[in-house]
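Tokens help. Consider this.
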Amino acid sequence: MKMRLWKHRSGAFTLIELLVVISIIAVLMGVLMPALSRVRELAQRQSCGARLRQQVLALNMYGNENDTKLPLPTTTGAWLQDVAINTVNFMLDTGMKRKMFYCPSNSNHQRYNDFFWGYGNGGSEWNGERFVNTSNGDFVVSGYCFILQSRSGGRPRIHRDPTDSQDKIWVKTLQEKTPATRELVIDSIMGMPNSNMKYGRNFAEVGGGIFDQHGVYDRTSHLKNETDPIGGNVGYLDGHTEWRDFDPELNSSGEAVPRYGNSPGFFW
């Protein structure tokens, strides 16, 4: 009687089998990662919109307590994120928290927040809940831009895209006409001139005072591929917010035309 000999196979994978498995995993990751990134961005976009809505609500409460007048911007220069320390304290007293001043999708604001939270030379101190020993010269560089006019009217005119139905204005009081269309607080979309990049702007590395002091760039909050803006949340004077895709006006050279400023230029 003949005996059949069976060749027993060990439990280890062959090199070819391992390569096949790795290839399959790589393909799946290539398919899933973009989808996961989109889901994460959508979640951050919604969280950001909720934070921006809190900013609008706090400014409305400020106006209600100050004869409808909205707070003075810290400067009349190009930077729209600056919020005076005393105004920040008021907003905190309405129930806002420190994190609500920054968009969750802005990695620089999250990673280097201490450089943005508290600025100036007046000696204001953060005690974990609010600023103490405040000075009128101190401010916070927030993650949102405020479309506020100075009392003297010192800010230049906002550029109006030809497709807009009405002029854009700097807001001074709660009594502006058509409050449902008056932008009050917006996501930070800003870019430095750079002819080598799409739209003629660098939206990922925005230099300025913080960069000069700490070597940390500011940046646009909602970016795709770390280069171009996706869009931003917009908070209106009447209290509602909505998402707006980035679709700037382009000049004859294909460069994006800012609503305000140039270095950086601000878009909304």
